[in-house]
Amino acid sequence: MKLTKKEQSFLDEFKKISHYREASNLIAWDLRTKAPRKGIKQRSETLSYLSERLHQLQTSDRMKEFIDELRLSENPYIRRSIELVQREYDFHHKIPVEEFKAFVQFTSESESVWQEAKEKDDYSMFQPYLEKIVDYNIRFADYWGYEGHIYNAHLKHYEPGMTVDTLDGVFPKLQKDLSRLIEQVKASSFKPQIDQITVQFPKEKQEAFALHVLDQMGYDFEAGRLDETVHPFAIGINPQDVRVTTNYDEKDFRTAVFGTIHEGGHALYEQGFDPKLYGLPVCSATSMGIHESQSLFWENFIGRSKAFWNTNYSTFLTYAPESFKNLAPNEFYRSINEVKPSFIRIEADEMTYALHIMLRYEIEKGLLNGDLNVKDLPGIWNDKMKDYLGIEPSTDREGVLQDIHWAGGDFGYFPSYALGYIYGAQFKHTLEKEINIEQAIEQNELKKIKEWLNKHIHQHGSMKEPLDLLKDVTGEGLNHQYLVKYLTNKYSDIYGISLS
Amino acid sequence: MKLTKKEQSFLDEFKKISHYREASNLIAWDLRTKAPRKGIKQRSETLSYLSERLHQLQTSDRMKEFIDELRLSENPYIRRSIELVQREYDFHHKIPVEEFKAFVQFTSESESVWQEAKEKDDYSMFQPYLEKIVDYNIRFADYWGYEGHIYNAHLKHYEPGMTVDTLDGVFPKLQKDLSRLIEQVKASSFKPQIDQITVQFPKEKQEAFALHVLDQMGYDFEAGRLDETVHPFAIGINPQDVRVTTNYDEKDFRTAVFGTIHEGGHALYEQGFDPKLYGLPVCSATSMGIHESQSLFWENFIGRSKAFWNTNYSTFLTYAPESFKNLAPNEFYRSINEVKPSFIRIEADEMTYALHIMLRYEIEKGLLNGDLNVKDLPGIWNDKMKDYLGIEPSTDREGVLQDIHWAGGDFGYFPSYALGYIYGAQFKHTLEKEINIEQAIEQNELKKIKEWLNKHIHQHGSMKEPLDLLKDVTGEGLNHQYLVKYLTNKYSDIYGISLS
C-alpha cells in the first residue's frame, strides 16, 4: 500500500493502540481460561492500566490531528480507517470526562448490586441503579447527538447505520411470525426425547469431537486454539491468533459442541480478514450484528442441520457414549432441535431466541424515550413474555433480572443478537444460489462454505458498513422473511407438521 | 507501610513498571506455551514495544529524581528498593545509547549466526562475531567501572557482591574435588542400568505424577499452574501467579519429573515473597545464584534423594508403566543418579554439572582480561574438558558452540549455576541442624522444608544481598565443602565404594 508520510505516521500511531489492545486481549483471555485465582487481583490492575493507556492514545490531540488531516485521504483504506478512529474519539470526547468517569464507576457498583439483587430475587434493590443508568444513557444520547429516535444514538455504536425505523419495520413482523410458528409447534403431537441425549459424556471426548468439527469448518489451528472457560467466547488477540473457548457440561454435550461451533463461526470471521488490512483500524469486524451472523450461521444453519448429522453422526458415535448407538440419526437430529419456550434467553432454541431479544429491544426503546418507567419493568417484562412466548416467569430472577447488560450500562447492544440471525438467514439464502449447501455438507466440504463467507464477508473487515455489506452480498436490505422461511421448513420437517 | 508523599509517588511510578513487566511476562509465557505459530510475529512486535516502554520508565529523568531524593530514605524497604532501581538505571545510562542499541542489534544477528554455525559445526563462522561481542563487553565493563578483575563488572549484574577473588578462592578447589570424585566413580564396578528406566511412559501419566510432586512440595496451585513447553522455565507473572513449565520426553520420564521439581523450586522462591513486599522493587529474587540454589535444592537434595524414593516409589508405580514394577526401589534410585561425564552441559548429572560451569567461567575471565583469544577457544575448550571431565568432544557443536549465552552477549551469568549448587548445599547443611530432612521426607512433610526456606530465604526477596543472606542463614561465606561432602556421601552409597 502506497502511503504518504502523514498516513504512515498515522499507522505508526495506530500500531501503539494495537500493541496495547493485543496485550489487553491476551490478559483477558488468560484471566478467563488459565489465570490462577490469587493472581487475578494484580492482573486486573495491570489490565486497567493498559486500558487507560489505550484510551489515552485513542483520544489524544495527536489522534485528532490525524483525523482532521486525513479524513479526505485519497487512500480508501486510510479514509475508512480514519472514520473508525473518529468514532472512538467522538464516543469519548462528546461526553464530559468527569461524567464518563462517574458512569464507569457507577456501573461497576451497579453490576455488583445487580448480582446480589438477582441472587435474592429482589428487583427493588436494583431499581434505583437502573433508573440512574437510564438517566445517564439519555444524557449520553444528547451529547452524542442523533436523528430520529433517541435509541439511534446508542444503536450506532454496535450496528452503525441501523435505525429504529428499520428495526421497527422488521422486528414486529418477525415477532408475530415466530409467535405463530411456536404456537403451531406447541400444538404438534411430536415431543423430542431430550433424556436420550442428556447422558454422561466425558469432557475429553466432547473436546475431541469439538476439535474435529472446528477442523472440518476450516478453522486454522496454526492461527488459534481451543480452551475451556466458564462463559464461552472467541477472541482475536491478533489477526493470526484468534482463540475459541467453550464450556463442557458432562450431562449435556450440546453446550460444548454447539458452543464451539458458534464461537468457531466468530473466529472464522476474524481469521478471514484480508492480510492487506493487517495493521489498519479496518482490520476488525464491521458490527456486532455481522459478527453474530457468522456464529449463528455455523451454529444453526450448519451445526444443527439434518445434512450435518447425516454426514457426521457415525463419526460422532465414535466419541459418544454407548447409549447413543440406540438412537437413530433422525431421532437424534430431532432431539437436538427441540423447540421449547424458556425463561432464560441464553438457554433459548433457534425458534424462540429472537423473541427474547425483541422483548428487550422494546423495553430499551421505551425506557430511553420515556414511554416506560424503570419501576414498572417486572410487570412489563412478564406481560411481554406471555405475549411473545406464551410463558410467564414466576420470579424476577428468571425475568427482568436475568441479564447483566443493563447493570453494566449497555443500551443498544441486544438488537445485534437478533440482527445476526436475520442477516445470517439472508446470507444463507444468497449462498444457496451459488452452492448447494446440503450437498457441500454431505460431501464433507464445509470449507467451500467457509470460502464463500471469506470472500463475501470476512475479508472486508470494516471496509463496508454492515447494511452496505448486506446489500452488496444479498442485493437487499434487512429482510426477516428468509429466517421465517428457513424456520418454517426446518421445523415442519422436525415436528412432522406443515407449519405456515 | 507508612510512606512520605515522595515515597508514595515513587511506588506509583514503579507500579507502571510492574504493569509493563506483568504484561510482558504473560506474553513471554504464552509465546512459549500456547501461542499459535502464525500469531507469533505480531505478538513479538507487541512484546518489543512493551519492553521499550518499560525501559523508558526504568531510565527516565523522573526515576533519576527519585533515586537522588530517596537514596537516604529512613524506610529500609524504600532505601533498598532505590538501590535496585538505581542498578537498572546505571546499567543503561553508563553506556552510550547508540552503542548499546548497536550491541542489542548485533547480538540478535550474532544469535542467528551462532545457530547456523552450530548446525554446520563451523566455529569459524561464529568466531568474528564472538570477537566483537568480547570487545563490546570489555568496553561495557569500562563504562560501568569495577574494582579488581574486569570480570567483576559483569558478575555483579547477576550476583551482586560476588567477585573473582571469592570465586577463585573456591572454584579451583571444587574443580579438583569433583574431578577426583568422578575418577573414583568411573573406576567402580557398579554401572547403573539406564535402559530399565528409559522406557515408554505416557505424557499424561508423567504430568499427573509431576502435579502430585508439586503439590507435595507445597506449590500453591491457586497462585500458579503447570504447562508444557520445549525449554522448561518458571516465571513470576506477578507474585501470586508464578507458573511452572516442563517438557515431556516419553522415552525418559526424568526430563519432566526432575525438570518440574527444579522449576517448582524456582517457583516456591517467588511464591514465598513476603506479601508486604508486593508492589515494591524488592519483591524479586536477590540473585540468579540464590534462585538457582532453590531449584537445585529441590531437584537434587530432595527429588533425587533416597528418602524421597523410599517414600514415593509406591505412588510413582501407580503412574509408571508396568515394567517399573520389576525394579527394586534401590535399583531405581541408583539408576536415576547415574554419574556419567557428558559433553553437553544441560544433560549433565549432579556430580559433573559444576565442572561444565567452571570451564566456562575460566574462559570468560580469560577472554575479558585478554589472557585468551577467541580464535583459540575450540582447543582451549577441549583441553579443559579433558582436564576436568576426562572426555573430549569430537565436534565444536558438542563443545564450544553448544550454549547460546555468548552469542546473546551474556558474560558473567554462568557462575550463578554453580554458585546455586554451592549455596544450596550450604543451606542444606544449616537446615539439617534444625530439621531431620530425611525424616521429613519419609513422613511426607516436604512442607516443613518449604516453610524453613520461606522463612530464611524466600520471604526476604531482595532485601538482602546474596552473600549477606548466605551469611545470615549459614553463618559463613561461600564454602564449597558442604557440596563435596554431600556428593561424597551420596555417591559412596550409590556406587558401593568409599569415595574420598
UniProtKB/TrEMBL annotation, chains A, B:
Full protein name: Metal-dependent carboxypeptidase
SUPFAM superfamilies, sorted: Metalloproteases ('zincins'), catalytic domain
Family classification: Belongs to the peptidase M32 family.
Keywords: Carboxypeptidase, Hydrolase, Metal-binding, Metalloprotease, Protease, Zinc
Cofactor entry: Zn(2+)
Gene3D superfamilies: 1.10.1370.30
Annotated catalysed reactions: Release of a C-terminal amino acid with broad specificity, except for -Pro
Cofactor note: Binds 1 zinc ion per subunit.
Function: Broad specificity carboxypetidase that releases amino acids sequentially from the C-terminus, including neutral, aromatic, polar and basic residues.
Primary enzyme class: hydrolase
Active site: E263
Enzyme Commission (EC) number: 3.4.17.19
GO molecular function: metallocarboxypeptidase activity; zinc ion binding
Binding site for Zn(2+): H262, H266, E292
